[in-house]
TrEMBL record:
Keyword Transferase: yes
Name assigned to this protein: Class I SAM-dependent methyltransferase
PANTHER family in the cross-refs: METHYLTRANSFERASE, SLR1071 PROTEIN
Residue ranges of domain Methyltransferase in the record: 37-134
The UniProt record lists the keyword Transcription regulation: no
GO BP: any one term: methylation
């Protein structure tokens, strides 16, 4: 529902201070990234537009046409394209011939790669897209958080908010599918405008820090930062000047990796 309704998505997950975009820009600067950035799984385009405003040349891609239409209208600047993050090549003769200096993938979009083959497809696509020494910057849930913890699984999370005069309530239930190594989510939406309840199902890969390091190395990347915060979705949230943390225990994972091998 939120993927089909970007305005509702931004109302439900406001980021008025552009914290995620600022954090991504800070990572790019700290590691001396060049100017050309690809934001893959860009959603409503908020972060891509922030990177554009920071002076970068940005191509931003998503699978959802609704997200892309919203992004083009509400967050202009980047070149918005439709692509599947599990297998993409956004370079185009005469338009985007140069490789990218960085690929950015925020708010767990990477975890829509459910299988090992899809993760390989994502990393192979990043490698194909990047210049030697290029960066991958990602932010996502941390699979390791669920080892020995059930606080996010024990009871449904209920969240209400009002948008354009209608009050929406989401009831979210999370469960771990150990066989597929997925975090499955069922979310039921109700609204006080008389519309019937709507059930949405999705899933994220439960990716563990050491597993991620191994996958990155197999695809020619060195993990420069891999930690649980501070970041744009941690509490307390990241602020300019904060250094990357040293553990990977809490529920968000922040990654900066460099493409060091391109054979
Ligand atoms: C949680 S949103 C994150 C959006 C944005 N990166 C942000 O941080 O606000 C995940 C996005 O991934 C997109 N997505 C899901 N599967 C995808 C795929 N296979 N290829 C490209 N985008 C995908 C969805 O359409 C959605 O816009």
């Amino acid at each position: 529902m939120l993927t089909d309704n970007p305005e509702l998505y931004e109302a439900r997950f406001p980021d008025t201070d552009r914290l995620a975009g600022r954090w991504a820009e800070d990572c790019l600067r700290r590691h001396g990234a060049g100017n050309r950035v690809l934001d893959i799984g860009c959603g409503t385009g908020r972060d891509a537009a922030h990177l554009h405003a920071a002076g970068r040349t940005v191509v931003a891609a998503d699978l959802s046409e609704a997200m892309l239409a919203h992004a083009r209208t509400h967050h202009p600047g980047p070149d918005y394209r439709r692509a599947d993050l599990r297998d993409f090549d956004l370079r185009e003769p005469g338009l985007h011939e140069e490789p990218f200096d960085a690929v950015v993938c925020l708010d767990s979009a990477l975890l829509y790669c459910h299988t090992n083959a899809e993760l390989d497809g994502f990393l192979a696509s990043c490698r194909r897209s990047l210049a030697p020494g290029g960066l991958l910057v990602a932010e996502m849930r941390n699979g390791a958080y669920f080892l020995g913890r059930t606080d996010l699984l024990d009871a449904p999370a209920v969240h209400g908010f009002t948008w354009q005069g209608t009050t929406y309530t989401s009831t979210t239930t999370l469960s771990v599918d150990r066989t597929a190594q997925l975090l499955r989510r069922t979310r039921i939406w109700t609204a006080d405008d008389g519309s019937p309840p709507y059930e949405q199902r999705s899933a994220w890969r439960l990716l563990f820090p050491q597993e991620l390091r191994h996958l990155l190395a197999a695809h020619g990347f060195d993990a420069l930062d891999l930690h649980d915060g501070p970041g744009p979705r941690t509490r307390p949230a990241w602020q300019e000047g904060d250094a990357p943390g040293g553990s990977a225990d809490r529920d968000r994972l922040h990654l900066v990796a460099r493409l060091t091998r391109d054979d």
